[in-house]
Amino acid sequence: MANGDDDDAAIFPSAESLAGVSLSQAPILFFVCFHKALRAELSQLRRLAVAESESESESSHRCDVVVELRRRFEFLKLVCKYHCAAEDEIIFLALDVHVKNVACTYSLEHESVDGLFDSIFHCLDLLLEDNNNISNQFQELVCCICTIQTSICQHMLKEEEQVAIYFIIVKAAP
């Protein structure tokens, strides 16, 4: 991850293993596509925060960037909420019939993401309210973004390896 773009390339499963599997055969692939989009958005948000933390722009521009980050994180939190609900209420309950305690385990992980979003919103609020220690506050924001990015990406990778592959292989088999 030297250049920060390696996290964008997180791919599951290999293209060869999905050759010939259509969305109608394995609708779980929709969730995999969503995961890829979520990874990309988290990466873009992190890059935007890092760029602003390293810039020496005027406070009005910084305020605009903070407002933009807040808007995008609010949307991302809402999207994650509905995505997690769909997984919890449909996918994991269906899988729980075959693999015990999957629904409970993943639901707990989904709940933990809210606290990470709260940390980001706290940092953004401080940046909007206080003009002291802007550099330190942006560094804290970047740290919080990296934490949520790592947590969500690891969680999604685990879902893809343990859950989605089950539905693709088992359910798509003729």
UniProtKB/TrEMBL annotation:
Pfam short name (any one): Hemerythrin
CDD domains with a match to the protein in the record: Hr-like (cd12108)
Domain Hemerythrin-like: 35-163
Name used for this protein in its record: Hemerythrin-like domain-containing protein
